[in-house]
Amino acid sequence: MTLSDKVERGPLFFRDRDWHPAAYAPGYKTSMTRAPFRPLVSMGSTLSEETGPAFGHSMIGLLDNNLIMNFTGEPAIGERIIMHGRVLDEQGRGVPNVLVEIWQANAGGRYRHKKDSYAAPLDPNFGGCGRTISGPDGAYEFLTVRPGAYPWPNRVNDWRPMHIHISVFGSGFGQRLITQMYFEGDPLIARCPIVNTIGQDKAIQALVAPLDMNRAIPMDCLAYKFDIVLRGRRQSFFENRKEGL
Prior knowledge:
Blueprint: H1 31-34, H2 47-51, E1 80-88, E2 99-103, E3 129-133, E4 139-145, E5 150-152, E6 158-160, E7 163-169, E8 176-183, H3 201-205, E9 208-209, E10 222-225, E11 228-229
Parallel strand pairs: 1-10, 1-11, 8-9
Antiparallel strand pairs: 1-4, 2-3, 2-7, 5-6, 7-8
């Protein structure tokens, strides 16, 4: 099945604004204090935000997209997985030379962060972040461990599904999109108050990576495919910018 087979065809690629959740969502506790209660003001970007600062491709190391080995050089603990896909424009064309960064909890569901107080142990060999540059056809790939679910102080017993955070940069750091990838079959997706702020199921499903046995490595690791679509009706759901890049 191709990308165009998954959506209705049409001459235009306007973003469906109903995908974006309301800023005030009582089920997501911290939104109650962060949501704006006055009309929003649109502020245009400046030339410096649109043109730079830029990142240096030569700064990407050989192990930067290998989260299993890139922290200490010793293998991290957990289920090994390949996370791969393509960065695409609204017409399904690959977008090359895009900086893709990810960060995640370890296999036990704990982040390497001083404010993470979850009882799961830290993995001494897992830093939890990586980066890569998309290829000529927009392809990207990471080798990592499947992150664990973890509790968070929202309601009495809320848990975040297994997920990986993704940051996509355009030609400069002022062009940044942020999203999350979830895993096919995780029952916590439907129970997550953050996920449930998204009003349409098709927008949620665009954030769920299907198992890809064609890319799995026998006796080594499973693979999950996650395409990142910029702009238009096919756009991935982004946390920080409705219209994409």
